[in-house]
Amino acid sequence: MPVTLADHPLIKHKLGLIRKADISTKDFRDLSSEIARLLTYEATKDLETEQITVEGWAGPVTVDTIKGKKITVVPILRAGIGMMNGVIDMIPSAKISLVGLYRNEETLEPVRYYVKLTSNMEERIALILDPMLATGGTLVATIDLLKAAGCTHIKGLFLVAAPEGLRRLEKAHPDVEVYVASVDEKLNDVGYILPGLGDAGDKIFGTK
Ligand SMILES: O=P(O)(O)OC[C@H]1O[C@H](OP(=O)(O)OP(=O)(O)O)[C@H](O)[C@@H]1O
Ligand SMILES: O=c1cc[nH]c(=O)[nH]1
Ligand SMILES: [Mg+2]
User: Fold this and answer.
1) pLDDT in tens, 81-91
2) Which of 172, 173, 120, 111 is nearest to 151 (CA)?
3) 109 vs 138: CA distance, rounded Å
4) Cβ-based burial of 14 (10 A; exposed 0-12, middle 13-18, buried ≥19)
5) pLDDT tens digit string along 126-144?
6) Alpha-carbon span 114 to 101, nearest angstrom
7) Which terminus of the chain is more exposed, N or C, with fewer CB under 10 A?
8) Which domains are assigned to the chain?
9) Ligand 2 midpoint to CA 75 (Å)
């Protein structure tokens, strides 16, 4: 399974800031979006381009344009919303497909409560957004439903992943490409990533 650790100095610096325990809701939100923007740069490096001719200020000029498949951004509710604006800044024409899943706190299994996908999923590259890849249950369930809708090209963007979640993903969906700012040490006994970020959804929405 292709895993890209996006360890650009700007990403590393921003991760250092977002890990602080006393971070404000505003700063957590801003940094999630900023790191997402940089992950988008990495995740779109292999998009194909083609040359077209446009009318420039001094006459016709040959320019590159992105060709082929269109993109749908798939934020996993709630926390994935915190990355969405950063990604949309970079790909303003992307369609958005929402997937609502939360983790049952006892079983750690994902519970589905909302799905609204855009049209023609089979023609699109899906960019899944979630700050946290912990046990991997939420991500595997999301990929299951995207594939059931016809998606064949799926990438996932995460701020922090646990090795346990990456191993689970590799078994279930080895074709999916992962872009992550940090692969952390492990999960604790209640399924939180260490050192991690804490509860990303609560920090982005200011709940709890
Ligand atoms: O890899 P997993 O073990 O499945 O855990 C990861 C999921 O947990 C968090 O969501 P949460 O259930 O807290 O929902 P929220 O975004 O609504 O807070 C996180 O944003 C992921 O979606
Ligand atoms: O560490 C974790 C694990 C799951 N969800 C979170 O928000 N944080
Ligand atoms: Mg949460």
Assistant:
1) 999 999 999 99
2) 120
3) 7
4) buried
5) 999 999 999 999 999 999 9
6) 7
7) C
8) 3-205 (3.40.50.2020)
9) 15
ipTM over 0.90: yes
Residues 172, 154: Cα–Cα separation, whole Å: 13
**Torsion sign across C-alpha atoms 108, 161, 80, 94:** negative
Query: Residue 52 CB: number of other CB atoms within 10 A?
Result: 11
Global pTM?
0.97
Torsion of CA 74, 90, 85, 94, to 10 degrees: -40
Ligand 1 site-directed mutation target among 135, 138, 184, most atoms within 8 Å of CB: 138
Strand duo 3-5 + 49-56: pairing: unpaired
